[in-house]
Design a protein that fits this description.
Layout (H helix, E strand, L loop, with lengths): L1 H4 L4 E4 L9 H19 L3 H15 L8 H8 L3 H7 L10 H9 L3 E6 L3 H11 L7 E4 H4 L6 H10 L7 E5 L2 H9 L3 E5 L16 E2 L8
Parallel strand pairs: 1-2, 1-4, 2-3, 4-5, 5-6
Helix pairs in contact: 2-3
Length: about 220
């Protein structure tokens, strides 16, 4: 892997599930937000979860699924306040920052995410990971998710990337394949949460976590 990195100038990284433990996002959307809605509207928590699940199913695969403003308007909630209330649940994946620091000695680091910029900044207040990026791009800023090839065209243009000199890592296989369609070498990270501790059987094009890049 280290020899391969000699031909790479830019390391492109997803944030949630690659740098940060995906567990926070899972709990945020499946538990914290529905629970706050239930309390505010004096609803049964199970009913509130069903309402959010129904809306999630309807919007999945669209920009609305990631857009905090959409959900805030739909359910009349302050999602940033909720995120800050549960900020102690935000955490880094093992060795993620150490790996980024090592890579940054010889590479440019770009974060590419579907996460809303406002939520990214809440997470950064806890984990201080943005300081190591030479740039970052949220799908909300350009109204196109990473599952769409246009996102990649925009990223290449914005950061003046040479696709053949880039390596991208994401925990979402569909996104990994879309990046490959854009001509970018990509790896699928298969341990997006700390709850997955054991080394898993790796298929071609996959790694456990980004620490595999330097270990």
């Amino acid at each position: 892997m280290r020899d391969y990195l000699n031909s790479i100038d830019y390391i492109l990284l997803d944030i949630d599930g690659v740098i940060l433990d995906q567990d926070f996002d899972n709990k945020f959307w499946q538990d914290f937000v529905p629970n706050e809605y239930a309390i505010k509207n004096k609803l049964d928590r199970k009913r509130a979860k069903l309402l959010f699940q129904k809306e999630s199913d309807k919007t999945k695969g669209s920009i609305d699924w990631y857009d905090l403003h959409y959900w805030e308007k739909k359910f009349d909630l302050d999602l940033i306040a909720i995120a800050k209330n549960y900020a102690d649940e935000i955490s880094l994946l093992p060795k993620s920052l150490e790996t980024i620091k090592k890579l940054k000695k010889t590479k440019k680091i770009i974060y590419l995410t579907n996460c809303d910029p406002r939520l990214v900044r809440v997470k950064d207040e806890v984990c201080n990971f943005l300081q190591y990026a030479d740039g970052w791009l949220s799908s909300i800023e350009i109204n196109s998710i990473k599952e769409n090839i246009w996102y990649w065209r925009h990223a290449v243009q914005t950061f003046q990337l040479i696709p053949q000199r880039c390596l991208f890592v994401d925990d979402n296989y569909e996104i990994v394949m879309q990046a490959k369609n854009a001509g970018i070498s990509s790896l699928h990270a298969i341990q997006p949460t700390k709850s997955i501790n054991d080394k898993l059987v790796l298929k071609k094009g996959s790694i456990n976590r980004i620490s595999d890049l330097v270990d």
